[in-house]
Amino acid sequence: MGSNVRVLIPEMRTSHLSSQPSPESIEQMSDGFYKFYEPDPAHAATLDIFFFHGLECEGSNLRDPHISSWRSTSEQEEVWPQKWLPEDFPQARIISVCYDSYTKQTNTEGRMDLHQIGENLMHEIKWARKKHGYNRPVILVGHGFGGIVIKKLCIYAQNKQEKSVGGSDMSMFLDSIRAFFFYATPHLGIEGIEAPAEKEGPLLKWMRVLNSNSLRLHEAFSELWRTRRYRWTIFGLGEAESTPESGRGKFRVSEGSSRFGDNYMTVSADHFSVCKPSDKNSNKYKHLKDLIEDVQKRVELERSQSLMVPKVTVGVDVLVTEVLGKHLREHRFVGFSGLGGVGKTTVAKLIFNKVCAKFEFTCFVEEIKLISGTKEEIKKKVWEKMWHHGRPVQSSSESSRDGWYQVVGKSMFLVFDDIEDHRHADLLQEIADSNGMGESRFLLTSRNTQRLRDCEDDVHIIPLDHLDDQDAKKLFTTYAFPNQGPPKSFEGVIQEIVVGCGGLPLTLEVLGKYLRSEPKEEVWAEIPIALRKCEDIADLEQRVWAKLKLSYDKLPCDEVKNMFLDIACFFILDHYDIPPFFWSWRANDAMKAWSVTATSAHNHVKLLEERSLLKVSRSKDHEGFDYMEFHLHEHVRRMGQRIAQQEGRSYYVPRLSFPSDDYPNDDQINSEEGKELREIVAHSIEISAILRCVFGQDCAFCIMRQVWPKLTAIQYMTLTVDVTNCCNQCRNQTFPLPSTLLLLCLSLPLLRDISVVTGRNFVDHMSGTLSLATCASLVRLELRNCKNLGDLSKLQQLRILEIFDCSVAENWATSLGKLKSLERLSLFRLEEPFELPISFGRLTGLQYLRIWCCKVTSIPASFKKLTSLQVLEVERIIGRQVIPIRSFRQLRSLKMTCWAIADLADVFRELIALDELALHCEGISKLHATLGNLTLLKELSVICPVKVLPDSLGNLINLERLKLEYPIQSLPASFSNLTRLGTLALHYEHAGTKVTVQNSWAIANSLKIRVEGHDAVPDVLWHLQWYLTKVKVFKLHCEHGATAVVVRNLINLVTLEITVTGQQAVPDIFKNLKKLRRLKLSCSAMENNLVESFIGMSSLKDIQLKGNCNLQALSGMIGQLSHLQSLSLSHLTNLNVIPESLGNLYSLQELEVENCPIQSLPETLGQLSSLRRLEVSFCRNLKTLPDSIGDLSSLESLYLSGSSLHSLPDTIKNLSQLEVLDIHCCKNLKTLPDWIGDLTRL
């Protein structure tokens, strides 16, 4: 701000004001806050928007400026934040801030300066947010002087935080701010003030010296914005017109003073009308609306990915600020090292939560050391945890291999927590190298500093230590006395506890929360004594576990203790080594099981949460059902596993087996092994054919007869029985399963001779019978490959029933209607025909029903009584049954194959809650206009002979995926309304079908089209190429290569897949595709010079060529594709030569040659120093490998299956990184070389 700017304080400004609303009609929340709008209590607010008014001038009609400043210039003169914003943002709480801004000093007004205003408002904001939502995101809107108040408020909060005076509250407030919107705020000060004749107030005095002080204020605020952790969005709106003043000339806040922030523009308005839009189309309103929408999107991204962190953190705020403001700006890799329990994971989560919305791809892998396997297997599991723009990638159809190519050149924030294995470090380096994006960041934690350096030589390592005594005491007392300070009489014992905890935040939290409910001093006095005893334990980890166990020992009953042990040893989310059938048994199933065994399961879980022995996250799964996840700190989980081991509770023993030549007799069963059986809580049991019974034949029933009575504690079990015979003693006998079972998965693979019945004994003369009659406590049952499934009615506690590939007894389905607790039912491939009984309508609690590939002969009218259904999938049923679905108004997902429904008009009128709809109905030739009622629909799949879509399709504004399997004649004009459409799959067949586009196409990110029967490009594709230039993923399946010509103008393509079934070659369409990274071409006609088309495509990273074609040799020019990272050649039946120039592909990481008649690999193969995976499989003519293969220093996986190799080159022993060597089906390879044992990583 220079001396050229001259601003006058106005004496008077006339304006006609509407009488509505009056100040009295707006609710006053406190001295300084007035509520413009608050959502209904049933729908909690998700955003706070605060409005700060400008100066209040004597004689003006801008009295009550917290209201009058925000009136529109329309005829109604609405207070537009109160009227318009709630219409566009019904979940936002909108507050007007009122403060003393009068320029003339009187007995009651104009007596406060800017510092006092900032201090007072900060206390008001703390009160309002503590009462109504501390962590709710905030947008601050200021007009003129109000913008100065906002900046002073932030500086005040920052100063208080640094001085630790209410610091955590200040930090939470500053963290919550997402954006600022400044209406003509003079950021750089004011000069040449002409005051009213009367005595000026402190504000006016402050304005006189603002020029000298404003630079300091502006620089301090700018530092918060640019260099601190607060990465706020700032928008400025300036005034283009001068403001006339009575007898004083004019003034205007210049652009130089008001320009500040990420975005700025001026509007045709003076200083007082710049914040008074005429309607919703005014730029004065539209830019604020756009800003709020952007904030909401970012908040949704943050919330969708947000990780659970302790509610109280002490001693880490400064560190998080430093990492965000400095280290992550200066370093691509940042690592935290320190002992377990010092808070490495907590700090990493806090940082992740703050920055995740700023990156396109994000991933937090907690305790990566638990992920085992080869590097490829680990990489696949890491990919399953990746998020893309706030959505988990595992919900997409992309495979891991295909998926990783999406992150190339994209911003990514990846966190590997608790690195222990060199494979994790190598994988991180590989991901970072292939990503190649300077804006990407990688955050690491480990107890081993060297492991961090293994990830990257230039990693910036930050050591974390225990909390000092002051911070440790503050953290402990915050948990132990959340509402008030500790009594003086407790000071001594508190200090002893803090010292005994050794500064570990986890121990301080657990003991603090335990003692919070213990007012007796004698209970407190016991803790220091116990902590001192723990110090005698030499092992550091066991010492920590012993301290944590003090809280476990004080749990009130065995029920809650056993629940904790079940969680720590079995139901924990991120355990990767449990048997496959247990993977789906998580927190929801645990709660169902405990509802049978515990008196108050929910209260017990709440108690574990209150003690910090457990954290529970609650969300929705991909089908919209309530979903729980259990989370335990590593030390807490290991402590629980140690306790379970000491107390004899056994979980998920890999397999129950006995020596093949020694059948277990009663003495053995009653031995120590028998004792172990009695202690088993969760078990995966496989009874295999190698077991030899005393009768000289294999018999699983003999095993079960001996073992079952000993499994007295078993609650969770998978049972796989694989036998070929049944002994005479066991034939026709019934073998009840253990009565204590709560969760059971029973699989009888490849068998036809075992029956599963409940109730009466069903006799099968070929085998014994397993009975579920005694399992009255079962809450989840999965049955696979069972024969003669009978009555299930005794399973009255059953909540989930899944039946796969079973045969059923007559009238078995009648018992389904008696399972009154059933919530989920899945029936897959049942062999015998059956009819659903009338009693099926009694399952009023049923929420999920899937019937797939079954012979359903009758569906009763009572079916319509299943009003709780949320997911209904009826597909490939044999029988033309009419399904009464109109009454299912809570239905969110509907997938059906049904030939009897001809018109879904009424269905579309009623099922307005649907977000997923898949129709495979031959009887439907037209979709009714009522389809437009399904405004919440996100995914629509139509496999029906529908030729025209209704114009109401454009009402589906939330549609993200659209699949049309049958050829259509036209798309409606409203199609362009589908702005959220991400994936479009179209199918065209029959030459002569004319498809027209009546208007512009929606800009989908992903497009999949199938064209059959055409000898030319369909009309629709000619239109398509002009309207879909922003498409990034294109998949085309066609009969003639000429069809692919439409691709040439899709200049933003990143992934292209073309499959041509005919004999026509694909033309040269690649020269404009400069952004293409991945090409998959499957064609029966490829030219030898095909590779030459790719020259100059520097973004191309992955090429896959497949097809029985005439391609005999790759062009030598392939060596010019220096950026190529993956090359796959598959089923090229004439390819017999791979050129020596292959060795020039120095960036190549994967090379796959499958089912090609090549006789050798080039000697230059050894030059591929980056190659990690080499597959040369089923190349029958390949008899030797070049010796240079031993030079592949980075090679980790080598697949040679199906080749004609007679021997392996000795140089392979030099491959020190090799983890996988696959030589199956190499019939000429008779022996393995002696050096094979030298490959220590194999």
UniProtKB/TrEMBL annotation:
SMART domains on file: LRR_TYP
Ranges where the NB-ARC domain occurs: 329-484
Superkingdom, natural source: Eukaryota
Gene Ontology biological process: defense response
The protein, known as: NB-ARC domain-containing protein
Classification via InterPro entries: AB_hydrolase_fold, Apaf_helical, DUF676_lipase-like, Leu-rich_rpt_typical-subtyp, LRR_dom_sf, LRR_R13L4/SHOC2-like, NB-ARC, P-loop_NTPase
Organism field: Riccia fluitans
Keyword list, A-Z: Leucine-rich repeat, Repeat
Residue ranges annotated for the DUF676 domain, each copy included: 86-196
Residue span, Disease resistance R13L4/SHOC-2-like LRR domain: 769-899, 1117-1198
